[in-house]
Task: inverse folding
């Protein structure tokens, strides 16, 4: 296959690319759950972190920014601003300021990254493929089941993916003879991708290997390479400090986790992501991608280093991490889609006319249909309704206690109620338990008696409690809490169903009114944050 150093792209093709990607993104996000119906526990936390950045900028607490963050967490205990890289939240903040705090605003920010991802995939493929196959490749990546599932939630995969793809566009342009500024741009975009999700860092190894393949040892004599490396290191220093100081749980996920589905010290750990590809991309695309890779290797097609190394280095990187989830490896899937498109483009004879285009269209439609029917985005409803109901009932400057699996969803929906910024949320698990990131990594029961639980609820100014019945009911501490809710001190005022399109942990939320001697809300409190192994004081 002849390699085009500088693909010629006219205005008509650009317009077609924009139209196709816009239609794909619009169709995808028309199916995205909204209205506060979050599914994955991280999703409302990512949404809340952007709200925090907006509130921080508005408040400008130059005298005590750390104290402001601690007080914010005490009011909305689902904040994870330092546990994850901050760029997505900084981008989200102005959208919240203009459009208001809502699930829909957060989804809009993700959708814009999704749009950038599609356009980046099209532009990247144009280095190797003509217009039609490149457009098909972009559409395929957008409709991949795994990408579409996580990309239509407030998650970091697609935002980081967008930066990664455009960094590849810039680096490939440099490798094909563009001026050094393209290498600087590619490195900057990769750094921005890491400030969105650190795991895209592996592409730095891919870029270095491609430059070394082109230039050999001469790469070490080129001053721009040294300048780029130095600027990248300087740019990543703040991220390194944040990760070392607040990201212990992320570091632990690399070295070893107690509940790993397949340890990196076993052979199962090194084939686990390979086994996920048919589920992530669908069997038809996986089979075509494998056949395309075999064809490219058999014919020794030149210039495909980005796709080979991007998959290979990424696969080794993600397999070496003990915590394994299929969504972590979405960055490997474009290689599968690319080789599938390359196969159809190469093998369908020109005499068939538009046969290759038709075959690509069928492949895209099949993948889109597979995504729509087999991988709808999950949702759990009822949390926005519960937040609105308790906000209607609760006295001013009081505390609402929440006990349940989806605490992040409830907390975000409480913050979205601009008219009740006076209310604080207190998580029952913070009072009764000590949990490190997630229960599977260990839980400590604090041993409070039923009388002490009731007294603590009164002392913290809790007039209303929102509870998921049966939440972690195998723990004695949670059993005591439920018995307190059933006592004469508490009165049930509402039951709110939580319908879901999957097998969820809960079926309803119950709101209780505290009839006891409720004290004014405490102005200061100590909060244990096991996620960063420290205790903070929110005065």
Result:
């Amino acid at each position: 296959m002849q390699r085009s150093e500088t693909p010629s792209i006219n205005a008509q093709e650009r317009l077609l690319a924009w139209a196709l990607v816009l239609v794909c993104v619009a169709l995808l996000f028309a199916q995205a759950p909204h209205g506060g119906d979050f599914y994955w526990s991280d999703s409302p936390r990512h949404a809340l972190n952007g709200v925090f950045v907006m509130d921080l900028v508005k408040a400008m607490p130059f005298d005590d920014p750390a104290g402001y963050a601690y007080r914010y967490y005490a009011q909305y205990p689902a904040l994870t601003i330092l546990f994850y890289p901050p760029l997505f939240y900084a981008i989200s903040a102005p959208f919240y300021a203009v459009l208001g705090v809502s699930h829909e605003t957060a989804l809009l920010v993700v959708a814009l990254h999704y749009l950038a991802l599609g356009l980046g995939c099209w532009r990247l493929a144009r280095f190797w493929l003509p217009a039609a196959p490149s457009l098909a490749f972009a559409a395929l990546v957008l409709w991949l089941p795994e990408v579409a599932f996580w990309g239509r939630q407030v998650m970091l995969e697609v935002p980081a993916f967008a930066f990664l793809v455009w960094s590849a566009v810039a680096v490939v342009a440099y490798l094909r003879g563009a001026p050094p500024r393209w290498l600087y741009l590619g490195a900057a975009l990769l750094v921005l991708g890491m400030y969105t999700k650190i795991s895209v860092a592996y592409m730095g190894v891919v870029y270095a290997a491609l430059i070394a393949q082109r230039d050999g040892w001469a790469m070490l004599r080129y001053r721009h390479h040294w300048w780029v490396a130095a600027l990248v290191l300087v740019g990543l220093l703040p991220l390194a400090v944040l990760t070392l100081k607040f990201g212990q749980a992320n570091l632990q996920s690399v070295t070893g986790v107690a509940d790993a589905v397949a340890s990196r010290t076993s052979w199962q750990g090194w084939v686990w992501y390979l086994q996920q590809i048919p589920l992530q991309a669908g069997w038809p695309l996986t089979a075509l991608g494998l056949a395309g890779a075999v064809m490219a290797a058999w014919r020794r097609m030149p210039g495909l280093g980005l796709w080979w190394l991007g998959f290979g280095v990424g696969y080794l990187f993600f397999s070496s991490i003990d915590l394994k989830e299929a969504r972590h490896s979405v960055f490997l899937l474009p290689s599968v889609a690319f080789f599938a498109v390359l196969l159809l483009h190469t093998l369908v004879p020109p005499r068939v006319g538009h046969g290759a285009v038709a075959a690509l269209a069928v492949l895209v439609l099949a993948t889109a249909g597979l995504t729509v029917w087999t991988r709808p985005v999950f949702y759990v409803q009822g949390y926005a309704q519960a937040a609105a109901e308790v906000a209607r009932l609760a006295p001013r400057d009081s505390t609402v206690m929440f006990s349940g699996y989806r605490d992040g969803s409830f907390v975000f929906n409480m913050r979205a109620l601009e008219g009740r910024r006076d209310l604080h949320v207190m998580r029952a698990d913070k009072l009764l338990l000590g949990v490190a990131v997630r229960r599977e990594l260990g839980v400590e029961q604090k041993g409070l008696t039923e009388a002490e639980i009731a007294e603590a609820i009164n002392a913290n100014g809790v007039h209303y409690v929102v509870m998921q019945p049966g939440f972690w009911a195998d723990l004695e501490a949670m059993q005591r809490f439920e018995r307190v809710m059933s006592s004469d001190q508490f009165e049930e005022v509402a039951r709110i169903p939580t319908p879901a399109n999957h097998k969820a942990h809960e079926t309803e939320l119950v709101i209780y009114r505290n009839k006891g001697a409720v004290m004014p809300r405490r102005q200061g409190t100590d909060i244990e944050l096991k996620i960063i192994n420290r205790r903070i004081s929110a005065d």
